[in-house]
Predict the 3D structure of the following.
Amino acid sequence: MAKIPTIRRRDAAATRAAILEAAHQRFLRENYDSVGLRDIAGDAGVDAALISRYFGGKEGLFRETVLHQKEGGAPFQDAKSAAELPAVLAQVVLEDADEDRMRRMEMFIIMLRSASSPRAGAIIRDLVQQQVLEPLTALIDDEHGEMRAHMMLAILMGISVLRTIMKVDRFNADDAEADVCAESFRHLFETALKG
């Protein structure tokens, strides 16, 4: 009896992950309008038709690239109330792992690089609104919640830029200074919440 050749099944999850990583690297180096699906497909080692199949096209792929991050979501998700938010954010600033902080900064660079594109800009604004500002505003839950949510995002992004891009990072201090630093950040976020 002749041996029947086995058909190798594609690993859809691995293919999807390879496409997302290739897109991440391309959008990190180039703006949205400069990146072609064939470029990404070539980097991922797949046919360009698979990108449309998995993501619906370039816009869908860009959206997924910006959304794609490690489990855990937004850094403020552990706060159950506005009262807990300053301490949670201070802890995030001080205990944020280098690789997590770097990956978020890469996402920020991708968004900055492509924000001038009408299509990418709309996707970015929509995602920031839905994934960060609306949940923060709901958590803050006061008449100035939206403004305060924007302030929190601005503070967190500023700190992140200092630590990852400018390499200004005096926040990894010894235990005694870490407590002072945590209290200072908690106070900063508390002040931004109260206005």
Observations:
- The chain is about 70% helix and 0% strand.
- The first helix runs from residue 12 to 29.
- The chain has two domains: 12-67, 85-194.
